[in-house]
């Protein structure tokens, strides 16, 4: 039977599941484990087809969420970065009783730009799909470099992301293309309007993939959620600003616990 890679760290009472982004794996979280371990029981997951979960092929967003839930704790805070934010959001929509709160990081309910909605231009995503078939490794490295562009520690952060990818077998081309399909087609905006779960959305001020304008647009339509735009950070704020990022998660746990106590 196929199983996802899971690893658990920490001594906290609250389960926190961390879902990585496109092309990467759970090793990307190691820069914040020591900061969070006293407060959470951390569940680090390689998404289907990525890292040590390489036995899975490409799949749809609902199927990916279903697979992840099979090994998840009964109830947890769910954090998803970039594409992982879509997976965590899908889980919150389909199994809200399993979710104490939702945290999305440099993520968007709709990654593709259209009409007045800011995001990645469709032709850019289509170009990445074409380039994956032509020059697999260089395309992944280019995408990783885009995630740190503009920060004071951009080169160092890009090297860290590259090391995370190279630490394990690279995902299959069809898995990466499937991930880009999710980024290109998913739109969870209407569904998430109805959600009443506690939600924290974290953005990077310099993010070139998920523009900070997304934060203000969702502030007006998702009153149940709160947003933070981290100055000086791009698409990977937990790497460039690990202390500030970790404090946001710890403060959010206190917020969720307070809401539960009030009930």
UniProtKB/TrEMBL annotation:
Pfam families: Abhydrolase_1 (PF00561). Pathway: Cofactor biosynthesis; biotin biosynthesis. It is found in: Cytoplasm. Substrate binds at residues 22, 82-83, 143-147, 235. It catalyses: 6-carboxyhexanoyl-[ACP] methyl ester + H2O = 6-carboxyhexanoyl-[ACP] + methanol + H(+). Its EC number is 3.1.1.85. GO terms for molecular function: pimelyl-[acyl-carrier protein] methyl ester esterase activity. It is an enzyme of class 3 (hydrolase). Keywords: Biotin biosynthesis, Cytoplasm, Hydrolase, Serine esterase. HAMAP family: Carboxylester. The physiological role of BioH is to remove the methyl group introduced by BioC when the pimeloyl moiety is complete. It allows to synthesize pimeloyl-ACP via the fatty acid synthetic pathway through the hydrolysis of the ester bonds of pimeloyl-ACP esters. Monomer. PANTHER family: HYDROLASE ALPHA/BETA FOLD FAMILY, PIMELOYL-[ACYL-CARRIER PROTEIN] METHYL ESTER ESTERASE. Belongs to the AB hydrolase superfamily. Carboxylesterase BioH family. This is Pimeloyl-[acyl-carrier protein] methyl ester esterase. The lineage of its organism: Bacteria, Pseudomonadati, Pseudomonadota, Gammaproteobacteria, Enterobacterales.
